[in-house]
Each structure stands twice: as structure tokens, then as C-alpha cells.
């Protein structure tokens, strides 16, 4: 917060850029002082115990990390000049206030803010104010940086009726900045429709259907950062999680939250969430689809409860010289009551011996004794009670249960009766059942089944908020696995139905949200692109009628004539790819060579033989290695300044079915930020016109 003095106003008139640079330098010095103050804290006289000292030290260490000054990251990127004072300290004056908007809060030695966190309410007009709704903002200033140095500024006089609307050159430059290294934050370029999603309430689940280049991933990550700012204590207690499609993708986005000062957000793939067993096997597309079907949840429930047996013998407990007898009919009532309550199998298993022990204590009281809780616990541990519990409600090991389900046709038939037909059951069974669960060739879909079984036995702990990206590719059972991690929290679901590239990809967000356990979630659609050039997205959108007929084509704010090149190469496709990569490397920024998975070995050999260094997806680019060789199956979520797309027909035929292949092609076509070159020896898919 700052109200300009007459001297500062005069300085700004003669050297406005110099004044802003001075404020940047002062802000950086203040941030350094804040960090040094934390580093100088002496906790020896504060912490009462060794444990509390460790906890406090951990909090101090995290605070020090959060106050890091990233040299090449602008400390502030905007300024708001309000027409009127909005804080109590300035309310008596007639003038307005000035706020610098940045990635984190910075205050001076007196505690007055020099930079306001972008998530603070006072910062909101920076993203939402317009000429028609200025939100009491007289001027919005954007800053341009080069390598961390403030080099330019640009003003919008929102309350001046004589000033005409114009596109922000600095905003466009920030959006179009070359993509070198991991994904950057978009905190300086958040658009009004994105800001509404970012600041949505923590108690509600939001689903974002976003076309390529609309920034849905960045919106989801910034939403996490906002929620941690607005509800820090709550989410620090319950935890937050970002779920991505693969480890390459998570490596690509992992620097966004730390750049915003948030260090405690876990990241995982669905496979890592359900890592109960080592995955060594694979499934056919049909088998994986069946294993991912929501009906499998009911099959597993039946299997878990298959061992429950109603008692036919009484339970006789001997204590001292007396025998206490609980008849079979009374035991049956207890078991039936637990069966009807629909509580977790493991919770019922823990409750059953206590319930039987309570029945014994009632009889003891009727016999003139006065037992207490210690006696009940002792009875619950009695050998006769344990034997009855084991016979009626045997313990279930989720891994062994799924092992039996996939290897025992009779057991599967019983559990799947009325749910799966004979052909579907046959597709689930192992051709040669392994001897033990330890040696089983578990597939990724099997691990999800085991996770479901584990939750049926013991409830999965819930987090405060979960972000799931590329969600359109999850199966119903995978949605359930993610949903279990936020049963008492909320979620942000991000995806694009047109980019669903698994045989079980969801057909609608309503269906997906139902499986996630968030039926009431609000669905937002982002169609305006900021990354993919208009010429490229228009070409890729020719596939939409075939892959997602209900979706509106995306538009782009970026008009880059010549950004798309189609080249027919009858002979020498590998050499043509090499030439196209060299041509792309002549420009500034990153380059991605995307090809069908089967083409990757040949292209890698060609690049290596030519002495052209190349990286794997997710690996950070450097000045010496800006080219990444990307299998089409890993391209989703990644972006490159220039993309060379090798043989579209091979990408399509590399998938189990034609529609999935076209969707994979759609993903590959929309990874470019500045230019796309398509090379093909075979005819292009007819859907591209």
C-alpha cells in the first residue's frame, strides 16, 4: 500500500521507469531483510521440548524457503492505482492508494506492504477490472522484464472515458515468451474467466473443460496456491495433492507452485496413489476397460463380504470357575446388524469381538457380577471369542483377495453374478493363475482394484483438496480411487474431452464427476486459447466432429500467419525430420519432435547419428539442448515453442481404435506455441480435410 507524495509524483513524471526500478530494488532489499529476520530467530528459549523445537525449526525452514528471492522471477508484475483510499490508514485522505501486485507479500521494516500478494482481495481488480467495470481503479500498470530486470511498463487508464481499448503488448509478450525449461506460472497473465475459477470457494468442487492452450493446468495450480493462501490453516491440517497423468508431466509442472511460494503440495500419478503392488504386467484394451468399469466396485464389495458366515454354534467364554454362553441366535443378530450397517469391513471386524464381549458382560451383570471396561476388553481377547469372530467375519487381505478373484473362476462367478457376463468374466481371469500374490503379474488396472478393496476394508484418509489434471483419461475405477482421497474435501478437475486417449476415456463430465463422488460440481468451459496460434488450433479443430462432436471449437487470441506448415515427404522421412528440427532450432525457444511411439527408436538413432542432442519428455531444457524427442503417448500437457510432428497417420494407427488415434493426433497437433511443421509420407487422415 502506498500513496504517492508530491516529490514522488514529480519524479515519476520525469523518470517513471527509474522510479519503478527503485521500488523494485527496495522491495528486493525488504524481502532479503524479511528472510534474514527469520534466519536470525533463536528457538532455544521458545521451544519447551525437543519435539516442539523440531516442529518449530521445520516451520522456520519452510518460511525461509518461501522467502527466497528468485533472481530471474519478477518480484512484482503489476500496479494498481485506486481512485479512493480503501484502507483505514488512508481513509481520511482524499487521494487514492497504490498497490504493487506480485507473487508474494513483501513489507518494509515498519510493516507497511511494499508488494501485495496476487491472491489478496485488494489484488483482484488487477485481473478483473475493465473499462466498463473499473472497480474503483484509476490506472492498471503492467511491467515488462528481461532476465529479472524491469525494462518496460504499460498503463491502462480504466477510468478515463477518452482512452480507447487496445491489446496489451506486454501481456501478449509474456504469453508468447519462449518455453525453455519447466512450466512457468501465469500469475501475471491470468484472465478474468480464469480468475473466477482460481478464486472459487474451497468447499466446492470445480470442473474445467479446457481446450488446448486455454491454460487449464496453470489455472488448477494457481487455484491450489490461492486456496493455500485463503485457507492455509485448514489445508495445512488436511493436505493438498496434485494428480497428473505421468511423471514426465509432473516434472514439467513441479516448479509452478514453488515459484508462488507454496512448497507443501504433494504430486503423484494415479498409479503412485494406488501403489499397493509392483506393476509388472499389462492388460489388453478390452480387459483394462472391464477392470476400469464402475461395476467392478460392486464385484469387489461382493468378494470382500463373501467370507461372512452366520454363526451356527454358541460362543462359550470361561472366566475363572464360571462359563458364560452367548447362543447362536444372539450371535446371528449381532452379525446381521453389522452387515446391515454398511460400515467398512475392517471396522466391523474390530467391532464384532467387542459386541460379543458386551453380550457376555450383560449376562455377567445378570449373574450378579459388576464388570468394567477392562473386563470387556479381556473378554474380547478371549480365545473363544476370537474363534467365533474368525469363523463369522474372517480378516481380508486386499491383495490376496484380488489375486483370488482373478485366478479363481468360481469365486469370480459368485462375486460377479448379475454384474458381468461370461465373456467379461473370462476376460478378467489370468490365462495361467500365478501361485501367489507376490509373484502375480499385476497390471496398472489391477492396482486400482486392490486400492478399491483396501478401501472396502479400511477407509482411505481424505485430503482437503485434490487437483486432478488430464482427468478425461481416467477410468471410472480410477475416478473412485482419486475421489477416495477427497471424500471430506473438494477437488479441481481439469481436462478436455477431445483429448481422451484411453479406451475408457470419459464420455461426459457429469459421468466422471459422479464416479469421483462430486455430483454437484460446477463445470466451467474455457474455449479462448492463449498459447496455440489461431492457424494451428483451427487446423487441429477439424478433428473435433469425429472425436468430440459436442464441443465448441477453440479460438485463439494469437494470430501468427505462417505458424503452420504441411510437408509431404514421399521419401526420407527421418532425414526430413532432422532437417525440420534443425530449422526449428534456428529460432529462440524449445523444440519438440513428436512421433508415434513406434517411430521413436528410429528417430532417436537419426538424431544421435547427426550429433543433435535431444532430451526425454519432462527433462529441463538447457541452452545446449533445446530439442525434446516426445512419444505421442507422453505429449499430453506438454508444450514447446516449435513442434515438428512426424507422420500423423502412424500416430492414429498406433492406438487400439481409430477415434482414440485421432484424439492422440489432436493432442500432438496442439503442443506448439509459435510454429508447427507436419511431416508425412502417408496420406493425412481424411478427418483433417
Automatic annotation (TrEMBL):
The lineage of its organism: Bacteria, Bacillati, Actinomycetota, Actinomycetes, Kitasatosporales. The keyword ATP-binding applies. Residues 1-20 are annotated as: Disordered. Residues 1-16 have a biased composition (Low complexity). One of its GO terms (molecular function) is ATP binding. Residues 189-533 form the UvrD-like helicase ATP-binding domain. GO terms for biological process: recombinational repair. Coiled coil: none annotated. ATP binds at residues 210-217. This is DNA helicase IV. InterPro entries: DNA_helicase_UvrD/REP, P-loop_NTPase, UvrD-like_ATP-bd.
Amino acid at each position: 500500500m502506498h500513496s504517492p507524495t508530491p516529490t514522488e509524483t514529480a519524479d515519476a513524471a520525469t523518470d517513471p521507469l527509474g522510479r519503478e526500478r527503485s521500488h523494485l530494488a527496495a522491495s528486493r532489499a525488504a524481502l532479503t531483510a524479511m528472510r534474514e529476520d527469520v534466519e536470525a530467530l533463536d528457538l532455544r528459549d521458545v521451544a519447551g521440548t525437543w519435539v516442539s523445537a523440531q516442529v518449530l525449526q521445520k516451520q522456520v525452514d519452510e518460511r525461509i524457503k518461501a522467502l527466497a528471492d528468485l533472481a530471474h522471477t519478477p518480484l512484482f508484475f503489476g500496479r494498481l492505482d485506486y481512485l479512493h483510499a480503501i484502507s483505514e490508514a488512508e481513509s481520511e485522505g482524499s487521494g487514492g492508494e497504490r498497490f504493487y501486485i506480485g507473487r508474494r507479500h513483501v513489507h518494509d521494516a515498519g510493516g507497511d506492504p511494499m508488494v501485495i500478494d496476487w491472491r489478496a482481495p485488494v489484488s483482484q481488480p488487477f485481473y478483473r477490472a475493465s473499462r466498463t467495470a473499473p472497480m474503483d481503479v484509476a490506472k492498471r500498470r503492467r511491467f515488462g522484464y528481461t532476465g529479472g530486470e524491469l525494462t518496460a511498463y504499460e498503463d491502462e487508464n480504466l477510468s478515463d472515458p477518452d482512452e480507447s481499448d487496445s491489446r496489451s503488448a506486454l501481456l501478449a509478450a509474456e504469453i508468447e515468451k519462449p518455453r525453455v525449461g519447466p512450466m512457468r506460472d501465469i500469475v501475471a497473465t491470468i484472465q478474468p474467466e480464469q480468475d473466477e475459477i482460481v478464486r472459487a470457494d474451497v468447499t466446492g468442487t470445480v470442473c474445467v473443460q479446457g481446450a488446448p492452450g486455454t491454460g487449464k493446468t496453470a489455472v488448477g495450480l494457481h487455484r491450489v496456491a490461492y486456496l493455500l493462501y485463503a485457507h492455509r490453516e485448514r489445508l495445512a491440517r488436511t493436505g493438498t495433492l496434485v494428480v497428473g497423468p505421468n511423471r514426465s508431466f509432473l516434472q514439467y509442472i513441479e516448479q509452478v507452485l514453488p515459484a508462488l511460494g507454496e512448497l507443501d503440495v504433494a504430486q503423484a500419478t494415479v498409479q503412485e496413489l494406488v501403489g499397493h503392488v509392483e506393476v509388472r504386467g499389462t492388460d489388453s484394451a478390452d480387459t483394462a476397460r472391464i477392470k476400469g468399469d464402475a461395476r467392478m466396485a460392486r464385484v469387489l464389495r461382493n468378494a470382500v463380504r463373501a467370507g461372512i458366515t452366520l454363526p451356527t454354534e454358541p460362543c462359550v467364554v470361561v472366566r475363572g470357575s464360571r462359563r458364560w454362553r452367548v447362543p447362536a441366535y444372539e450371535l446371528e443378530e449381532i452379525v446381521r446388524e453389522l452387515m446391515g450397517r454398511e460400515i467398512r469391513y475392517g471396522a466391523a471386524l474390530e467391532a464384532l469381538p467387542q459386541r460379543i464381549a458386551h453380550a457376555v458382560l450383560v449376562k455377567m451383570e445378570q449373574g450378579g457380577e459388576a464388570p468394567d471396561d477392562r473386563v470387556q476388553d479381556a473378554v474380547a481377547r478371549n480365545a473363544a471369542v476370537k474363534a467365533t469372530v474368525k469363523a463369522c467375519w474372517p480378516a481380508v487381505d486386499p491383495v490376496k483377495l484380488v489375486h483370488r478373484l482373478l485366478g479363481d473362476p468360481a469365486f469370480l462367478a459368485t462375486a460377479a453374478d448379475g454384474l458381468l457376463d461370461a465373456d467379461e468374466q473370462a476376460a478378467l481371469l489370468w490365462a495361467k493363475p500365478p501361485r501367489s500374490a507376490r509373484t502375480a503379474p499385476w497390471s496398472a488396472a489391477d492396482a486400482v482394484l486392490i486400492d478399491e478393496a483396501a478401501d472396502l476394508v479400511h477407509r482411505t484418509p481424505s485430503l482437503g483438496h485434490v487437483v486432478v489434471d488430464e482427468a478425461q483419461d481416467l477410468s471410472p475405477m480410477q475416478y473412485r480411487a482419486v475421489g477416495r482421497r477427497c471424500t471430506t474435501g473438494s477437488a479441481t478437475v481439469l481436462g478436455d474431452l477431445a483429448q481422451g486417449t484411453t479406451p475408457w476415456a470419459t464420455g461426459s463430465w457429469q459421468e466422471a464427476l459422479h464416479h469421483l463422488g462430486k455430483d454437484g460440481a460446477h463445470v466451467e468451459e474455457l474455449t479462448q486459447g492463449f498459447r496455440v496460434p489461431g492457424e494451428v488450433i483451427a487446423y487441429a479443430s477439424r478433428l473435433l466432429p469425429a472425436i468430440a462432436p459436442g464441443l465448441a471449437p477453440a479460438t485463439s487470441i494469437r494470430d501468427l500467419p505462417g505458424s503452420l506448415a504441411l510437408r509431404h515427404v514421399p521419401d526420407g522421412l527421418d532425414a526430413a525430420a532432422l532437417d525440420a528440427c534443425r530449422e526449428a532450432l534456428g529460432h529462440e525457444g524449445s523444440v519438440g519432435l513428436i512421433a508415434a511411439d513406434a517411430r521413436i527408436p528410429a528417430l532417436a538413432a537419426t538424431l544421435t547419428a547427426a550429433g543433435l542432442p535431444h532430451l526425454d519428455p519432462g527433462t529441463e531444457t538447457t541452452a545446449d539442448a533445446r530439442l525434446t524427442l516426445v512419444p505421442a503417448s507422453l505429449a499430453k500437457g506438454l508444450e514447446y515453442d516449435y513442434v515438428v510432428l512426424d507422420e500423423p497417420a502412424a500416430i492414429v494407427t498406433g492406438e487400439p481404435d481409430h477415434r482414440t488415434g485421432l484424439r492422440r493426433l489432436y493432442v500432438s497437433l496442439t503442443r506448439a506455441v509459435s510454429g508447427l511443421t507436419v511431416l508425412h509420407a502417408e496420406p493425412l487422415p481424411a478427418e483433417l480435410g
